[in-house]
Amino acid sequence: MATPNILLIHCHDLGRYLGCYGQTVDTPHIDALADDGIRFDNHYTTAPQCSPSRGSLLTGRYPHVNGLMGLAHEPWELHSDEILMPEYLNECGYSTHLFGLQHVTDDLDRLGFDHIHSSGSISPAVSPAIHEINRARDVAETLEVFYEKDTFEPPFFASVGVFEVHRRQNNGLHEFTDTTYEPANPTEIEPLPYLPDGPGIREDIAAMHGMIQALDAAVGTITTALDAAGHAKETLLIFTTEHGIAFPRAKGSCYDPGIEAALLLRWPDMIKGGQRCDELVSNVDVLPTLLDLLGKSVPDRIDGQSFLPLLTDEKYYPRDQLFAEITWHDRYNPVRAIRTNQYKYIRSFWHLPSTYLTGDVFASKAGRDVREQLQAERRPYEELYDLTADPYEQINVAADPEFEHIRKQLRGRLVRWMERTDDPLLNGPVPPADYEELLPSQTR
User: Is 359 exposed, middle or buried (0-12, 13-18, 19+ CB in 10 A)?
Assistant: First the structure.
């Protein structure tokens, strides 16, 4: 099997809100990736938030295993012995390049890239100015120049991270809009099935359409440059995002809209176009798949499993479950979850409002529409949803005697996973990353 170049395109807060996943948004360039490759319809992330999910993508390990249990600027950090995707690929003979954003560490040297082509490579949450230099259009044009100059030394790995579709703070309100993006008409928007049809929600969805279309145009710039440079046939192009859209009951929650993510793979020399895969796949599975593809043994320390057989029609042993978690975001919100094809079991470990809203979602028009309703009651410690009968997770059947055996079974599986992975929640509340620094000196 030939050694491909690898181009990883990743963005913020998109989930599966794309035309190729059935949404009413115009994304022809991203849809073309699905038409020319394989679309994963049940791909989920390990966390409904940026840094922990991205850390899992790059290490193949769960957030509480690799240490990144909160946002990288909070300041959570990967354990010192973690090995990241660029480092693995360096060992496989790749030249490795970073374009645009990442949000895994403030220490860019820690990432292991040979070349960093970005002047600001952290999250927009760190500095409001970051988004100005990492818009999809600008990052794509930078990459285009590198292709035109034939700068890459094959085989190469390029990580391409863009600001969109992250909300921007504007006078205390977190929005998707500015003069760069053209919103859709709010009256023509399809409402989200898991939220009420409120005017603020409609306005935010319409504005998000503008950002998504800017992202799609950038993907078109990248794929056109790739084709023009003659690299398309020998390049595995991966398009993904780190968690669900920035709306209530999505980003920051372990409901499906929070942990769902697009995953599209295109490699003309190997992957037949137009394929659809409905197997459960986690983003911890991407790294072991790449190692498997390159003929390297997958280290035991990696939590994910290779899904390469799904691309080669070889024998594949499918997942019957996957796990998700959140511990810290802008506040303490410890949750662990297990998802099978039919059921979702969610276990909360703290007393919080019924629905957690991240800071940007709380301070948005969509958040204003529903935050009183969603935060009026205390969250149950156990939630169970029958995803076949209730795909939008509206009816908690954890206390229903009919589902008692399912609840016990999934709770047992979740606890065993936490024990197997030495989850610190088993020992009690997890302090914030800067806890020791904030203690009075005499008590340290």
Answer: middle
A 10 A CB-CB count for 275 gives: 16
Same domain flag for 326 and 294: no
Q: Indicate if 43 and 181 belong to the same structural domain.
A: yes
Per-10-residue mean pLDDT for the chain, 444 residues long?
Answer: 91 97 97 98 98 97 97 90 97 96 88 83 50 83 89 91 93 90 95 97 98 98 95 96 97 98 95 96 98 97 97 92 97 97 97 92 96 89 98 98 98 98 96 79 52
Q: Which CATH number characterizes residue 370's domain?
A: 3.30.1120.10
* 289/348 same-domain check: no
**What pTM was estimated for this model as a whole?**
0.95
Domain that holds residue 385: 322-425
Do the domain assignments include residue 303? Answer: yes
Nearest to 259 by CA among 7, 16, 10, 4: 16
In a domain, residue 440? The reply is no
Q: How far apart are CA 6 and CA 9, in angstroms?
A: 10
Handedness of CA 13, 15, 19, 22 (dihedral sign): negative
Residue 214 and residue 113 share a domain: yes
Residue 411 identity: R
Residue 149 is predicted with a pLDDT of 84
Q: What are phi and psi of 291, to 5 degrees?
A: -65, -40
Q: For the chain, what is the total number of helices (H) and then of strands (E)?
A: 14, 16
CA 59 to chain centre: 14
What six digits make up the tokens of 43?
């791909």
Percentages of the chain per state (helix, strand, coil), in multiples of 5:
35, 15, 50
Residue 402: CB atoms within 10 A of its CB come to: 8
Domain count, the chain: 2
Structure tokens at 323: 């796990």
Q: Report the pLDDT value the prediction gives residue 437, as an integer from 0 to 100.
A: 74
> For position 2, what pLDDT does the model report?
77
Count the neighbouring beta carbons within 10 Å of the beta carbon of residue 213. 21
- d(Cα 42, Cα 443) in Å, to the nearest integer? 48
Residue 189: inside a domain: yes
Domain boundary among 311, 342, 370: 311
Q: Is residue 190 part of a domain?
A: yes
Q: Are residues 131 and 202 in the same domain?
A: yes
Place of tokens 């039919």: 342
Which bin fits 370, alpha (ψ -120 to 50), beta or left (φ > 0)?
A: alpha
For residues 156 and 96, is the Cβ–Cβ distance under 8 A? Answer: yes
Whole-angstrom Cα distance, residue 133 to residue 59?
27
